[in-house]
Design a protein that fits this description.
Layout (H helix, E strand, L loop, with lengths): L1 H7 L3 H8 L3 H18 L9 H6 L3 H4 L5 E11 L6 H7 E2 L4 E10 L5 E4 L3 E2 L4 H7 L11 E3 L7 H5 L4 E3 L12 H27 L14 E4 L2 E4 H13 L10
Parallel strand pairs: 1-6, 6-7
Antiparallel strand pairs: 1-3, 2-3, 3-4, 3-5, 8-9
Helix pairs in contact: 2-3, 3-10
Cofactor: a divalent metal cation
GO molecular function, one term: metal ion binding
Pfam families: DDE_Tnp_4, HTH_Tnp_4
């Protein structure tokens, strides 16, 4: 029942009809199993040791990005429109033109998901979600983050002696130097891996493509930490994706 919900995004009413039980029983079973999966899969999302990371660095990273620790991007999940006006403003995404919840995801050069932030309202910018997340707590001096142009948080990352690299801005420049062109091309080729991982995540766990109930944005107690239902769903789906073969060639 749980996997029919997260893998195939079957609705609560649909599952209740299929299994011949009430909607309340389906909902209770889903949340109980979700709590268990959330706790049991925590070890599957792990920030790797630097030595292990660099020892197993794919060939495509070794020329320009051998110090890469993580590749980051944001993804959004649709939610129902809240009735509260302030909450409605917080979850409205100008990019998606819909009420959404946004989360930051980071993958290793090897293609495994190594970081997920807490979910935030879709209104938050890429820069803000990085600054409010715990990502920098995992960085070591000299680490490099690869990101898209929206992540203009060099100062924040720089305080931890790390660096964020993005495609160069061409505004005000007639032409880029040859090295910058080659570097940008290589960056695009490796940075696209995080987009591919997000694509696999949503393809395998189609609940992340649906419009989720606004109640899933509410915090529910799990152990000693308050996490929302959406946080648990995202974490569980990401952890299970890490059990699949990597989309990055290890040659």
């Amino acid at each position: 029942m749980f996997f029919l919900r997260v893998r195939l995004s079957y609705g609560i009413e649909d599952l209740a009809f299929r299994f011949g039980v009430s909607k309340g029983q389906v909902s209770k079973h889903f949340h109980n199993v979700l709590d268990i999966v959330y706790v049991k899969t925590k070890p599957l999302i792990k920030w790797p040791d630097r030595d292990v990371l660099r020892l197993t660095m794919p060939t495509s990273f070794r020329k320009f990005f051998k110090k890469c620790a993580v590749i980051i991007d944001c993804s959004e999940v649709f939610v129902e429109r809240p009735s509260d006006l302030m909450a409605r403003a917080q979850v409205w995404s100008n990019y998606k033109h819909h009420s959404t919840i946004k989360f930051l995801i980071g993958i290793t050069p090897q293609g495994t998901i190594s970081y997920i932030s807490k979910c935030a309202g879709g209104r938050i910018s890429d820069k803000e979600i990085v600054e409010q997340s715990s990502l920098v707590n995992y960085l070591l001096p000299g680490d490099v983050i690869l990101a898209d142009r929206g992540f203009t948080c060099q100062d924040h990352v720089g305080m931890y002696m790390a660096e964020i690299k993005m495609p160069p801005f061409t505004k005000g420049k007639k032409q880029l130097e040859k090295y910058d062109v080659d570097w940008s091309r290589e960056l695009s080729l490796v940075r696209v891996n995080v987009e591919r991982v997000i694509g696999v995540l949503k393809q395998k766990y189609t609940i992340l493509q649906n419009i989720l109930p606004v109640q899933y944005c509410e915090a529910s107690t799990c152990g000693d930490t308050n996490v929302t239902v959406i946080d648990k769903i995202v974490h569980a789906c990401c952890a299970l994706v890490n059990l699949c073969p990597s989309i990055v060639s290890q040659d």
